[in-house]
UniProtKB/TrEMBL annotation, chain A:
Biased composition (Polar residues): 1-20
Protein name: MIP18 family-like domain-containing protein
Residue runs in coiled coils: none
InterPro entries linked: FSCA_dom_sf (IPR034904), MIP18 (IPR039796)
Protein species of origin: Canariomyces notabilis
From TrEMBL, chain B:
Its biological purpose: Key component of the cytosolic iron-sulfur protein assembly (CIA) complex, a multiprotein complex that mediates the incorporation of iron-sulfur cluster into apoproteins specifically involved in DNA metabolism and genomic integrity. In the CIA complex, MMS19 acts as an adapter between early-acting CIA components and a subset of cellular target iron-sulfur proteins.
BP GO terms, sorted: DNA repair; iron-sulfur cluster assembly; protein maturation
Keywords, alphabetical: DNA damage, DNA repair, Nucleus, Repeat
SUPFAM superfamilies listed in its UniProt record: ARM repeat (SSF48371)
Protein name (record): MMS19 nucleotide excision repair protein
Similarity comment: family membership: Belongs to the MET18/MMS19 family.
Transmembrane is among the record's keywords: no
Residue span(s) of domain MMS19 N-terminal: 72-333
Domain MMS19 C-terminal: 748-1125
InterPro entries: ARM-type_fold (IPR016024), MMS19 (IPR039920), MMS19_C (IPR024687), MMS19_N (IPR029240)
Length: 200, 1170
């Protein structure tokens, strides 16, 4: 596609390091010229003996710790989806933003593991007349349906005021039958597969 | 005659090369036997007569029009001539007489005139042989060349292989000094033969032939002194090929395009008489603009460089062209974007600079160099004021100035002045950065040039000594300091780049050296300035400690790291630097109370100490005189000493742990532990520096087996290192006299380190429990292991370190002072034992020695049995592993130890009620002792195995513990590694598996023996197998898979913990099998999917105390299920797909994040099954 054909030729792009991630929530480990022997002189596990000294040196201490699904998990699932126009991900283009993801009720407070949880994702298209908004919404929906357990209900919308025709787009994305029909379309399906390729 | 004719006929009729060789050898022996009598040689030559006569006199046209019979003649004739050529090849070089050689040359030479179809290959070959004969005369060479040239136009029609023969013949002749002088004598500068050759070979295109042809051309130019006209002709001949390329061919010929380029380059660079043609030609090629690709451009530039480097008499050959070269090349750098061309261009410019300076032995007139640099400088000076071109202009100037000392000394003052002027009014932060980069680069170049001064002309050193330094001396206050002082608090990225350059500049300034009148190097800057720079930079170091956690954003980690590197470079030349930094760092640390520090302060302390260590110990300092001269002696170990002493002075930072008598809380006393960490890091850094500088051999070169370092230490006070630093004690004599290049530094470093370890061990074993947390002790133990394992075997023996592993370097009368607990002493013991070589431990095994006592220890445990047992186990595994047995295994101590444990197992799993918990801890020790022997493949182990198997199968509850822990025998153990000098046999796992697990399969399978035994044996097998690599159990997959299927569903009467361990092992093994040989599972797919699914579902239930195990199980189960669709065809997986997809969809909601990830992957794998 030529640049002139793009609907938004110059979107704002965040670098990967600027995206919200779980890793940076804790204190960052400094990597300076002097950090080479840190793993030896500041061992993660100060007790080097016994059966614990087995081969898996990087045994994660947090193994087995329960961490219920949260907004960041949902963000990590959908932010790597590729944009249909640009060689960037939805996260980099800020189409998907962490504050616009809501889980209700929060999985941490579920009465039983089978109770229903609604995931609401508000998308922000890069421009307000984006004709690909529906496709992006469809991709997000597909990705979530393929990766979330059956007790999660997915609701993908355009953020209020972010799109000229957000009502129509929302209606389209919310209509199960129209979504199912869209997925029958080979061209559309190929496009979605291409967008989801970047998700691991 | 008849004989030769017969042989010739045989040769012609034969197609078999070995047979042909045999025939020619016979002929050659015959000639040699007759001592080349004329008759025999005549007969031999005449033997091919019958093939020569009919076609010989014919005109070529006739032959071409001829029928098959005639072309048959050609082949036969060619073979007949080959018979002669091959005979010559096998013939002894001394046999033929001069007149015979001449006649043969005449004969074969005539072929070039008459027989272009059949005679050329064989004749060329024969002539090559003849030219190598002893009685060959130079004038014959001239004749051969004449004859060869007669082939004229038909040369092109010959096959490439034939032409190759001719080229090789020509090369051999032209290279021959006697033929060469004969040719020059005959033809003089007109080189008539060369002109003929050029005509002959002008259309060559075969790469192999070209390689030789280019070689011939280069020799012609270089050695034959041709007239300008002929030179031009030759130049035209090879330059027509430039730039040369090679079409890729399906049949590789062993010559690359790069070879051809090199060969053509060799022609261009062969002699300076080509200069008038070369430079205009190459530059015109370069100036073709966009038509030239990068590869061609680089080829041209490399060729120009080769010419500049090779041409002699630069005044005549290069100087007339420099301006043209510069004018053409400067834009490649100024406006260029491709790194390769820029680099190649700079190489050319640097080559000119070097050439115009002269050689090591002969300096050229300085005016030549001056006019060249002036040319460059004039063009680039203005660009320095233009932010767009500053970098490029700087690069160009530095390239020509920095190529040699003379150029640098003449021009650096001018350049620095220009930079300084521009720096006063920079156009933008990036302009400022580029200018500083250039300034730094001038300083760096200065250092490099003065380092190389010894390799150049003696005049260079003199030039350096007499250079003016005023412009350098003012740089700090004029250029760098104002920018540093003007830094703002909130920096943008570009300003931070500027400051990084300033920091680098600081380091370069301090490291600048000047040559004193005695030839010694001294620092350019006076001590007060160096000290000021040090203090400016060390402020960034200690900043972190001064801030609180709320200001944490104020730090600039990039700048701090840059400052750390700069300080490291500074202290390597400025000898007081580290002492000053150390003073500042220790003062800052002391200012704070470390009794109950915050996490932020602890982190800041860790960073500060880590950087402080890196600065002083990551390289070995050099001896450079200070200004004014220093009174203190220099030692390459002085920074290491300063660091060690100041850390020891700081230790302990807090002498009060929060709960004095608690054990096992490893987060206690972190501040103290950080100091030990830094001591450890200092050893690691300095060891690496020593190894890089002196190599490991440095320790082997000088044997000190008779020295007992520990004995020497006994005469020194404990705080000797601190005393040295305060100046109260003298260094050991040797340390003072050490020079930085002396490998003895490495040994002395180890000696000091051992002293240090000794001091800390004494302190730790006698010191208070409050100072030494277990974390600090574990670190000290690792540190001692590092020192001990670096020592040679002789030294380990002579210092009797094996004894000190239990004595902790205490003096004879000091035993009573020891107050440390068993765990503490145990940790220290492990450290030393870990690093010792087997022979150094020998003393411990004698009689009923210390080793046996420790390996057979079944005494009770104290307050923290888990830790105590792992320490005992660590000691046991080392002692059992490093035992060097006596020749008779029956009497060996190891047998006693293993028998002891065999008995113990029998008793403990018999009816006697032994507390399970205590049993489990002792079992860990026992298993580790046996594991040490297993790694060494001790034959005595085999006799313990039945006892172990019996114990595992016993009705007693303890049997289960034995069965479960059997894997310890093969588990990876950090103590059993090569760097720790452990004895680990290469195939010990195979060996152990075949004795431990393999015999149990039969009884472990359902229906084999009673249920109880089968259950226990299954646990043993799975425990062992899960610690083996796949190849070990590859042959037993069939029974193993049946066991795995059983293990997944049938928990038997096993306790819950053991049953889950068993499931985990089973799943681990399944993952391995799926990765390596999935086909083995094909018949069991239904069971495996079904039972793994069930395991997953069971694991989802919450069970107290087992959360981590269950999560691991779920993770592994999903790994197994997820891998199945990727390994099997759809016809196997399709029936399972719908239930799997449902189950995996639910698994995507697993409470553990890692498990969710695996589940998603498995789900997407199964989604592809349709």
């Amino acid at each position: 596609m030529q640049n002139s054909d793009l609907e938004n030729a110059n979107p704002t792009i965040l670098s990967v390091s600027q995206l919200p991630s779980r890793g940076r929530k804790g204190p960052a480990t400094r990597q300076g010229p002097d950090s080479k022997c840190d793993s030896i002189v500041y061992p993660k596990r100060p007790w080097p003996y016994g059966s614990g000294s087995s081969s898996d040196e990087d045994v994660d201490e947090t193994d087995g710790v329960e961490e219920p699904m949260d907004e960041q998990d949902i963000y990590d699932l959908i932010s790597p989806i590729s944009d249909p126009e640009h060689p960037h991900t939805l996260g980099q283009l800020s189409v998907v933003r962490l504050p616009d993801i809501h889980l209700s009720p929060s999985p941490a407070e579920l009465p039983s593991p089978d109770s229903l949880v609604t995931v609401q994702v508000d998308l922000t298209p890069t421009i307000n007349h984006c004709s690909l908004a529906t496709v992006i919404g469809l991709a997000v929906r597909c990705r979530l349906e393929q990766t979330l357990p059956p007790n999660y209900r997915v609701d993908v919308r355009m953020k209020v005021g972010s799109h000229d025709q957000d009502d129509q787009v929302n209606k389209q994305l919310g209509d199960k039958e129209r979504v199912a029909a869209a997925l029958e379309n080979d061209t559309l399906q190929r496009m979605l597969d291409k967008m989801l390729e970047t998700c691991s | 005659m008849a004989q030769f004719s017969q042989w010739a006929l045989q040769y012609v009729l034969s197609d078999d090369e070995p047979a042909q060789l045999e025939i020619t050898q016979k002929a050659a022996r015959e000639i040699e036997a007759s001592r080349a009598s004329s008759t025999v040689v005549g007969n031999w030559a005449a033997s091919v007569q019958q093939w020569m006569t009919p076609g010989f006199a014919r005109d070529d046209d006739q032959v071409e029009d001829g029928d098959e019979g005639v072309s048959g003649d050609i082949i036969a004739r060619a073979k007949a001539l080959s018979f002669l050529a091959d005979t010559l090849e096998t013939l002894d070089r001394n046999t033929l007489k001069s007149d015979q050689v001449l006649r043969l040359i005449g004969f074969f030479g005539a072929m070039f005139s008459y027989d272009h179809k059949a005679g050329i290959t064989a004749s060329a070959k024969a002539l090559r042989q003849l030219c190598a004969m002893k009685s060959f005369k130079p004038d014959m060479g001239v004749r051969v060349i004449d004859d060869v040239c007669k082939i004229r136009e038909d040369f092109r029609l010959q096959t490439a292989a034939t032409r190759l023969e001719i080229y090789e013949l020509l090369l051999a002749l032209i290279q021959d000094p006697s033929v060469s002088s004969e040719l020059q004598h005959k033809y003089g500068a007109s080189c008539g033969f060369a002109v003929e050759l050029l005509q002959l070979c002008q259309h060559e295109r075969d790469p192999r032939n070209l390689m030789i042809w280019f070689k011939i051309l280069a020799i012609l130019v270089k050695d034959y002194d041709p007239s300008p006209e002929v030179t031009e002709e030759i130049f035209k001949a090879f330059s027509a090929y430039f730039p040369i390329s090679l079409r890729s061919s399906t049949t590789p010929i062993g010559i690359t395009a790069e070879d051809l380029k090199e060969a053509v380059r060799g022609c261009f660079a062969s002699h300076h008489r080509l200069a008038t043609f070369t430079f205009p030609f190459l530059i015109s090629k370069l100036d073709q603009g966009d038509a030239v690709t990068v590869a061609v451009k680089v080829d041209i530039l490399k060729t120009i460089k080769a010419c500049i480097e090779e041409y002699e008499n630069p005044q005549a050959s290069i100087v007339p062209h420099t301006e043209k070269i510069w004018n053409s090349l400067k834009y490649e750098v100024r406006n260029g974007e491709v790194k390769e061309t820029i680099d190649a261009t700079l190489e050319v410019l640097r080559a000119i600079s070097r050439k115009l300076d002269g050689t090591k032995t002969h300096k050229l007139d300085v005016a030549l160099l001056k006019s060249y640099i002036d040319l460059v400088f004039r063009d680039c000076r203005d660009d320095l004021a233009n932010p767009t071109y500053t970098k490029q202009a700087g690069l160009l100037i530095m390239t020509v100035i920095g190529a040699n000392i003379r150029g640098y000394v003449l021009y650096n003052a001018g350049l620095i002045d220009t930079i300084r002027q521009n720096l006063r009014q920079p156009k933008s932060p990036s302009h400022k950065r580029d200018l500083l980069l250039l300034l730094n680069s001038t300083l760096k170049t200065r250092m490099e040039l003065s380092k190389q001064r010894k390799q150049g002309h003696p005049e260079d050193e003199e030039t350096l000594r007499s250079e003016s330094r005023a412009h350098l001396e003012t740089l700090f206050h004029d250029a760098y300091l104002p920018i540093w002082a003007g830094k703002s608090k909130e920096m943008i990225a570009e300003e931070s780049d500027v400051l990084k350059q300033v920091i680098q500049g600081f380091a370069l300034l301090v490291s600048q050296q000047v040559l004193q009148s005695d030839g010694q190097a001294a620092l350019l800057y006076p001590t007060p300035t160096c000290s000021e720079i040090c203090s400016l930079l060390s402020l960034t170091l200690t900043n972190g400690l001064a801030l609180s956690s709320n200001d944490s954003n104020a730090g600039e980690p990039d700048l701090e790291d840059e400052a750390v590197l700069a300080l490291r470079n500074i202290v390597m030349s400025y000898r007081y630097g580290y002492e000053e930094i150390s003073g500042r760092v220790t003062a800052e640390i002391r200012k704070r109370d470390w009794a109950s520090p915050s996490a932020y302060s602890l982190n800041a302390l860790k960073d500060l100490l880590s950087r402080f260590t890196f600065i002083g110990c990551s390289e070995i300092p050099s001896k450079i005189a200070t200004n004014p001269p220093s009174q203190q002696p220099f030692s390459p170990l002085q920074h290491f000493l300063t660091l060690t002493a100041s850390l020891l002075e700081l230790f302990p930072l807090s002498s009060r742990l929060s709960t004095p008598h608690s054990t096992g809380n490893l987060e206690e006393g972190l501040a103290n532990a950080h100091i030990v960490s830094s001591l450890h890091a200092s050893l690691l850094w300095f060891l690496e520096a020593c190894e890089a500088k002196y190599g490991r051999e440095a320790l082997a070169s000088y044997s000190s087996s008779d020295q007992n370092w520990l004995e020497q230490f006994q005469h020194l006070p404990d705080d000797w290192l601190i005393q040295i630093r305060r100046g109260d004690a003298d260094l050991l004599g040797t340390l003072v006299s050490l020079q930085q290049d002396d490998p003895e530094v490495y040994r002395q470093f180890l000696k000091l380190s051992l002293f240090n370890v000794r001091y800390l061990f004494r302190a730790a074993s006698a010191g208070s429990r409050q100072t030494w947390s277990e974390r600090a002790l574990a670190l000290l133990s690792q540190m001692s292991a590092l020192v001990v394992r670096s020592l040679s075997e002789e030294l380990q023996v002579s210092c009797n370190l094996a004894h000190e592993a239990f004595n902790f370097f205490a003096g004879p009368a000091e035993d009573s002072k020891r107050s440390a607990s068993d765990i503490q002493t145990g940790i220290l013991t492990v450290g030393i034992l870990q690093g010792l070589r087997p022979r150094a431990l020998a003393g411990l095994y004698q009689g009923v020695g210390v080793a046996e006592k420790h390996m057979c220890d079944t005494s009770g445990f104290g307050t923290s049995p888990s830790q105590e047992s792992s320490v005992r186990a660590a000691i046991g595994v080392i002692l059992a592993n490093k035992y060097q047995g006596v020749s008779d295994p029956e009497t060996s101590m190891m047998k006693r130890v293993l028998d002891f444990w065999a008995n113990w197992y029998t008793e403990a799993t018999a009816s006697a009620p032994i507390n399970s918990e205590a049993f489990s801890f002792h079992n860990t020790v026992a298993m580790n002792v046996i594991a040490g022997a297993v790694a060494r493949q001790d034959r005595n182990v085999i006799s313990v195995i039945p006892a172990l198997q019996r114990a595992a199968a016993s009705q007693h509850a303890n049997g289960e513990i034995v069965a479960r822990s059997m894997g310890i025998l093969l588990q990876h153990n950090n103590l059993l590694t090569q760097e720790n000098h452990a004895v680990v046999k290469r195939f010990y796992k195979q060996w152990a598996y075949s004795h431990l697990a393999k015999p149990l399969y039969e009884d472990a399978l359902p229906g084999g023996k009673d249920n109880h035994t089968a259950n226990r044996y299954r646990v043993v097998i799975l425990s062992v197998v899960s610690n083996c690599p796949f190849t070990v159990y590859q042959d037993d997959l069939e029974p193993l898979i049946r066991l795995l299927v059983t293990a997944l569903s049938d928990r038997g009467a096993l306790s819950e913990g053991v049953s889950w361990t068993q499931v985990t092992s089973a799943l681990q093994i399944l993952v391995e099998i799926l990765t390596n040989e999935p086909d083995a599972l094909k018949g069991h797919l239904r069971e495996i999917i079904g039972r793994t699914t069930k395991v997953y579902e069971e694991c989802c239930q919450k069970k107290a105390g087992l959360a981590a195990t269950l999560a691991t199980c779920r993770n592994l189960a999903l790994q197994v299920l997820g891998a199945i669709p990727t390994k099997f065809e759809e016809r196997y997986t399709l029936p399972h797909a719908p239930p799997m997809q449902r189950m995996l969809a639910v698994a995507c909601g697993d409470p553990v994040r890692k498990v969710r990830e695996v589940a998603r992957k498995a789900r997407s794998n199964w989604a592809k099954v349709v």
